[in-house]
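Lab channel / #folding
Pinned by the channel admin:
"Please post every new chain as: sequence first, then the structure tokens as a reply. Keep commentary short and put observations after the output so the thread stays searchable."

First post following the new format, from NK:
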Amino acid sequence: MIFVVKQILPTTIVVYASVAALYLSAEDHTGDRTAMVLVGALILMVNFQADLGLGSITYLVWWDYFNLAGFFMLLGVLVVCIYEHRLIYAEDITRARAFNRVARVAFLAGIYPLILTSLLVYGQSDGRPDLFVAALVIGVLGVLGVLLVWHCVYRRLLRAAFRSRELAAASLAVADPADGAFATQMEATFAAWDTDRDDKLSRDELRELIKTAFPGIGYLQLREVMHEVEAHADRGDEGSLSREGFAGAMAQVLPKLKKELAAGGLGGAVQQFLNPVSEVFGIGKRMAAAPKPGLPKSANLPDVRQDV
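Reply from TO:
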């Protein structure tokens, strides 16, 4: 009992506290999360030096397996932290948030409890093959099952998030500022596309929203829309829009944008390719001034017909 209170219980608390670092925001506390995990790993390494009163032994005992299991689990948590940081650095906030929601529950409520249970069963398996097999099944198959559920739930969360954004973009495409429900539509669209939950839409989020809502928009049109939207942006926020600024910007931009797109012109894909080219090289103007293709009108053309 003394060994449980002095060694096993504090070590378990340390591991759980380190895993709880996943509840910190990866955007703002990546360093803090990493530090918490590394401190927990160092404490586990110190546990290897604890004197258990067994004298000098040349093999691993249950206490060593217990600490090794916690150490490798914290190593997995560290990998998760690094992967989340990579997703955020790539501005893939949606995937980062979905991955974190599943990972923290999987480690705290699935993987580590299964590892502890497996170790406890293994500790009682002295000379009993049935308990050894049970510990192996719990530790290996149980963790693999958790990882499978992790993958399925993660994919489901991603599909739900992307579907929500697509529906919000479709709602924006048909929104009418004269409609009484316009404010509600803009609120829902803002919430769906505010992926980092900071109550602001960044330039990248706005650009992606406009491109999703209006697939046929060209490069020059998108640039013009973003320029008009920036007039409603908060000062000092690098073009980010608040909820009120987003609604005001869409009320001004949407009627004009829909009118331009309804006027016709090149297809979306062709337009998106030609617009930046014509902007840089002036191809559009030269093409408009060039004569239409056809045979030149000339009286001096030779008659190539032959009498049969």
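NK: The CA atoms of residues 55 and 206 lie 66 Å apart.
TO: also worth noting, Confidence is low (pLDDT under 50) at residues 265-308.
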